[in-house]
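Q: Please design a sequence for this.
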């Protein structure tokens, strides 16, 4: 059994679904179910004895201690986090609480559990911490992509909180010998992503004929990876990664935001034409995000060389799958779009 934290969120739920489909090893899923956690992502696992869901906080030491003692997982994969940069600008406290303090408590409990394991199990145990390329800061147009040795230079409360947790993970390996692994991945897209993030937000707004808000000049560059490829990369690192190491994960797909949105519009024009005209008519430039990093790019050669991992999707195949998924899963979309998300969206986008 493995313990997955944050397994009801976007990447965590994709990871749990793919893991059980491909490997079948039981998963204990600990998730607080914040606005971003959604058990509907895991609806296909209802009644599946290989999936045990527990609603709770990674910072709840007594709960984590009990879960580790009772279920004896061979690994922990930590996805649990506050993950949205804009929210971290409006309210950083939750980010410090979960990403820094929560990760610390989880590490402490993992350390106690690991130290008490019999030697064979202690050798095999892994703590894999899922992190982001945003910890490396912003690149200029001609700069080489981030490698695992690029100095950390986080610029938002979100990336600073993730950087802090990465450093704690590193320290727990260096100081206590906890067998840790850290992955730093580029922007993910795919099914079950909460529609505050760029790609699902654009798909949903476009099909409803609503404006497509583009920050600044739309030329901020991100490196995009299909979520299923992120999940296979994490599996490779968990299975074969060298303890104490970090691995950058990316798809070699650098693209300016405006190009992403225009691609989504073109796909919608093909798959769901709007009688009112091309979806790109809805593009609306809005005031930029404060401190908006200009460019992220990932050098993924280490994971490719050491672990033989390669993404299965190109951007063209992945984005087509994604747009189709949102069009085919109206019930999921309508549900998330009707609740807390709607309130947040109104608060944050009306003023612009
Ligand atoms: P998400 O916001 O969709 O999901 C986060 C999940 O964590 C939710 O289910 C939420 O309920 C849960 N959670 C939050 N606080 C918790 C707590 N204190 N205890 C237990 N559960 C808690 O995020 P995501 O996009 O799936 O990202 C998952 C991880 O991957 C994060 O650590 C993020 O930093 C990292 N990451 C994300 C991306 C991306 O593009 N989305 C890229 C690289 C790395």
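A: Design:
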């Amino acid at each position: 059994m493995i313990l997955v934290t944050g397994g009801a969120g976007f990447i965590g739920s994709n990871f749990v679904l793919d893991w059980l489909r491909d490997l079948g090893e039981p998963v204990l899923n600990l998730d607080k179910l914040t606005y971003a956690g959604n058990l509907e992502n895991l609806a296909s696992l209802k009644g599946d004895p290989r999936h045990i869901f527990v609603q709770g906080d990674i910072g709840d030491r007594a709960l984590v201690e009990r879960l580790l003692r009772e279920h004896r997982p061979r690994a922990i994969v930590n996805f649990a986090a506050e993950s949205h940069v804009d929210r971290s600008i409006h309210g950083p406290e939750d980010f410090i609480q979960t990403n820094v303090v929560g990760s610390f408590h989880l590490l402490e409990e993992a350390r106690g559990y690991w130290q008490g394991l019999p030697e064979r199990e202690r050798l095999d145990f892994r703590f894999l911490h899922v992190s982001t390329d945003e910890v490396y800061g912003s690149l200029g147009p001609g700069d080489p992509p981030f490698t695992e040795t690029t100095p950390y230079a986080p610029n938002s409360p979100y990336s600073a909180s993730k950087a802090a947790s990465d450093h704690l993970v590193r320290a727990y390996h260096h100081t206590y010998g906890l067998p840790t692994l850290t992955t730093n991945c580029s922007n993910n897209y795919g099914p079950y992503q909460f529609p505050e993030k760029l790609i699902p937000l654009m798909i949903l707004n476009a099909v409803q004929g609503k404006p497509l808000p583009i920050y600044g000049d739309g030329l901020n560059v991100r490196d995009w990876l299909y979520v299923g490829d992120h999940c296979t990369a994490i599996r490779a690192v968990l299975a074969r990664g060298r303890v104490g190491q970090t691995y950058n994960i990316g798809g070699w797909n650098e693209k300016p935001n405006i190009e992403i949105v225009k691609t989504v519009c073109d796909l919608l024009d093909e798959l769901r034409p709007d009688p009112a005209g091309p979806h790109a008519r809805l593009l609306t430039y809005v005031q930029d995000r404060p401190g908006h990093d200009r460019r992220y790019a990932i050098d993924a050669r280490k994971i490719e060389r050491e672990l033989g991992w390669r993404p299965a999707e190109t951007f063209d195949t992945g984005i087509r799958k994604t747009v189709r998924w949102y069009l085919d899963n109206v019930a999921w979309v309508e549900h998330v779009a009707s609740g807390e998300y709607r309130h947040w969206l109104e608060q944050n986008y009306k003023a612009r």
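Q: Thanks. Anything notable?
A: The first strand starts at residue 2 and ends at 5. The radius of gyration is 20 Å.
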